[in-house]
Amino acid sequence: MKIIWTFTLLMIPGVVSSISVTGYSGREIIITCKYDREYTANEKYFCKGQWSTICSDLIKTEEKNKAAHSGRFSLYDDTRAAVFTVTIRDLSEQDSGTYQCGVDKSGQLDSYTEVNLNIITETNNHGTQSPSSSSFSSGSSLIISVSVLLLLIITVILLVIVTLWRLLTLGR
C-alpha cells in the first residue's frame, strides 16, 4: 500500500512562501497548491530551482479540471477549489531539492510557493528498498519478540511453582 503524503501550500500573490516536505524513495507525494480565484484561467506550473534564478519546468498546463502528465509528474488544476495538485511518482534521492509551485501572471511577478523536498531512502535487511515503513516493521517485530519472550518466562515460572507445590504437597 502506497502512502500518499499531501501537503497544502499557501500561495500569496507577489510573495514567495516556503515549506519543507519529506517523501520516501519509491513512493509518491502529492503537493496541493492554493492560488487566488482571480487566477483560475492562468497557466499553472511546477519547476525545479530557485524562483529568483532559472527554474526548469517539470510540468505546466493551461488545462482546467483535467490532469496533465509529464513523465513521473502530474498536475491537476481544480478551478472550482482554486487549487492545483502536483503528484511526483517513484521518488528517488535525486528528487531532493528546491522546487516552485507557480501561477503564471502575464506582465506581473508570478505567484510562487517554494517547496524544499527531502527524500528519505528506506532499506530492509537485504539492502533493497522496502515498500513499507522500516521503522514500523522493526518496532512491530521488537514488540512481538518481547511479548513472546515474556510469555515463555511466565510459563516457566508457573511450571516451576506448580512443580514445587506438588513436591511439597506429596511430601506431607
Commentary on this structure:
Residues 1-15 and 124-138 have low confidence and may be disordered. The chain contains one helix and ten strands. The longest helix is centred in the C-terminal third of the chain and has 37 residues, at 134-170. It folds into two domains: 4-120, Immunoglobulin-like, CATH 2.60.40.10; 136-172. Helices cover 22% and strands 38% of the residues. The strands form two sheets. It has a five-stranded mixed sheet, with no helix packed on it. A five-stranded mixed sheet has the order 2-10-9-4-5, with no helix packed on it. It is of the alpha+beta class and 172 residues long.
Rounded average pLDDT: 78
Number of domains: 2
Which architecture of the largest domain does the CATH hierarchy give at level 2?
Sandwich
Helix content: 10-25%
Strand content bin: 35-45%
Strand order of the largest sheet: 1-3-8-7-6
How large, in whole angstroms, is the Cα Rg? 27 Å
Along the chain, the helix and strand elements come as EEEEEEEEEEH
Unreliable segments (pLDDT under 50, ≥5 consecutive)?
1-15, 124-138
Distance between the termini: 64 Å
What is the CATH topology assignment of the largest domain? Immunoglobulin-like
Q: How would you describe the oligomerization state of the chains in this entry?
A: single chain
